Amino acid sequence: MNKTLEKEENLEGLWKKYQGTLCEECRDALIVHYLYLVKFVVGRMGASYPSHIKMEDLYSSGVTGLIRAVEKYEPQRMTKFEGYAMLLIKGAIIDELRDLDWVPRSVHQKANTISVAQLKLQQELGRDPTDEELALALGISQEELQDLLERVRPAILVPLNSDPIHADDDEGLPICERIADQNAQTGFAIADRNEFCRLLQKEIASLPEREQKVLMLYYYEGFMLKEIGETLGITESRVSQIHTKALLKLRGRLQNLLTT
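Now predict its structure.
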């Protein structure tokens, strides 16, 4: 038998045994098998963080995310484990960085200012504002806007990994764990999760095509900003700006929808 096929069958058997018995040895074996995902995510994320952030800390947090992914994975309602796990690993790392409070409060305030301005203009214009319109509303030049988008990027890494309304609460759940389960029993918690997922999908679909593409490549394909730039034929800096604007739009829109 082909060794690769044999390995895949053994892994599938391990998953079935763990999910049928919750055997700790099986769980630990799965965690060890998928540790390469943690190294992969840390390697990509770590390159963009300040030098005082230790890679060892990010790796430790990533392992926590992997453990959570193994314990919560439900193949009947999800697709590939690798994609699901990478979202939770990335989310656990971001949670650790938030706990370290490495982003100054002033940066969070500036990110919120941009988000509010974007939402207000979108409501007034009935469409997404251009960079020129957004800069005018903020009272700055377009060049200053691009620089500001670069500076606030660390403050808006959270929205796709946590509930923007409860981002500072223990009850905030990663969006990637709020995937709708059509076969689940009804109840308030399930209905709330499904509704949130529906709203998120709707808002992402309403973004300009390029912003959607950047989010998909970054969060679901694991591309680095430089790789996304090469794929789309734009600079890494421009990708960063598009990514930041998209997340600020999502945060503002979801907060507005869920608090009204």
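DSSP finds twelve helices and no strands in the chain.
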